[in-house]
Every structure is written in structure tokens, then in C-alpha cells.
């Protein structure tokens, strides 16, 4: 039963990959092409998430060197474990 679910999931992911590959704009011959707005958006979101994770991961070290003020309380719901 589990193998069937995994094979259906794999087949679904393959079909999505093929759909995205064929749905893009046709390739141009010249090297001067504009960057996709979706690519810029995804890169921005991933960069922001990386910054948030890095700050959360090194919160104690940033406090120790004085980059984060200890007097400002951050609600624990917004911080990781």
C-alpha cells in the first residue's frame, strides 16, 4: 500500500516537472535576456528565509557580541526552540 502511494507521488512530481519545463518561454539565441520576475521573487524569499534562520540560529552569539539588545524582548512565539 505504501509503495503504491510513493510511486503515485513520484509519478505526480515527474509530471509536474515536465509541465513546468514545457510551459516556459522558448529559448532565445541571444545572450541578452531579461531575468524572470518569478525567479527574482523566489530568490528574494529564499534569501529572506535564510537570513531569518541564521539570526534565529545564532541569536545567543549575536546577543553576546552586542548586536542584539538584551532589553528588547522578543515574544518567544516568534523565536525557535
Helix-strand topology string: HHH
Strand content: under 5%
- Shape call: elongated
Query: Major sheet, described briefly?
Result: none
From the alpha carbons, calculate the radius of gyration and give it in angstroms. Answer: 22 Å
Number of helices: 3
Unreliable stretches (pLDDT < 50, length at least 5) are none
Instruction: Give the helix level as a range of percent.
Output: 55-70%
Pairing-aware structural class of the strands and helices? mainly alpha
Number of strands: 0
The chain-level mean pLDDT equals 75
Oligomer: single chain
Distance between the termini: 36 Å
Q: Which descriptors apply to this entry?
A:
3 helices, mainly alpha, 81 residues, 60% helix
Task: Write up what this structure looks like.
It is a single chain. This protein is mostly helical. It has a domain at 37-81. The chain has 3 helices and no strands. The chain is elongated, with a radius of gyration of 22 Å. 0% of the residues are buried. The model has no long low-confidence stretch (mean pLDDT 75).
Amino acid at each position: 500500500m505504501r509503495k503504491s502511494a510513493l510511486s503515485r507521488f513520484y509519478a505526480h512530481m515527474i509530471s509536474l516537472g515536465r509541465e513546468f519545463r514545457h510551459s516556459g518561454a522558448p529559448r532565445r539565441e541571444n545572450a541578452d535576456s531579461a531575468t524572470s520576475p518569478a525567479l527574482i521573487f523566489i530568490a528574494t524569499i529564499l534569501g529572506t528565509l535564510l537570513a531569518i534562520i541564521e539570526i534565529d540560529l545564532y541569536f545567543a552569539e549575536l546577543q553576546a557580541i552586542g548586536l542584539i539588545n538584551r532589553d528588547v524582548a522578543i515574544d518567544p512565539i516568534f523565536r525557535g526552540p
